[in-house]
Sequence to fold (279 residues):
Amino acid sequence: MPPAKPDARESDTRESICLIVEAAARDANLPLEFFARVIWQESRFQADAVGPMTRSGEHAQGIAQFMPGTASERGLLNPFNPVQALPKSAEFLNELRNHFGNLGLAAAAYNAGPRRVQEWLTGTGPMPEQTRNYVYAITGTSVDAWAKAGATGKGPPSSPPTSCRDLMALLKRAPNAFVAELEQHVELAAAKIWGVQLAAGFDRNRALAMYSRAVTRLSAVIGDRDPSLLSSVMRSRGTRAFYQVRIGADTRSEADDLCNRIRKAHGACFVLKNRGVSG
Fold:
């Protein structure tokens, strides 16, 4: 007997999760598979991961394994919130790539620290064996080869995921709480009676861009509310996916207040009542 197909709601939720991960990679101009592999190596997509104690007595924290000092420097308020941490992680990797010239050395610097990689490149320090293994696991190429390639170094040789199904297969290689946590995040946003809509339409690229903007540039306005990127199929309009960037609210007044603050910050929004939610 063939396995049961997921219902429409489950499919929409999983697609939304993929969009959240993809939005972070896309906004930082990173290959999706490279970014997903970095996070996989760091935490196995465990949102509550805590790394071993370092010589400084600190622990790396969260899905992207930020050290407390690095998280503070990058304006990451809560490393254990994957919706906040993923864009910051992708942003940091992009900066490391720009500094060192390629993705392989960026991965090495993310793992070992920029100073240690710089010392290794100038011949004044070693490259940790753990970092060598880390870079090879992510890119399929040795860190020595990446150093020789310099700015001409290309990305991982394997083909990137071409669909949500491919990415979900990567995320679910081992039991972890990441998918479940993001599923809950997406479903909670959809369950709110009211919503502040930042974007809606069939244009996937625009939806990804608007979501990234909401997470990164409107964070001071929206506070601890996490915007969600929802995907659904509107049967009355065919079979194309319809995307919505939305922040949930419990009351009309709460939604109106938030939308007014977003507009004052030069953002666009409107308030709507969510269909199918009673209240």
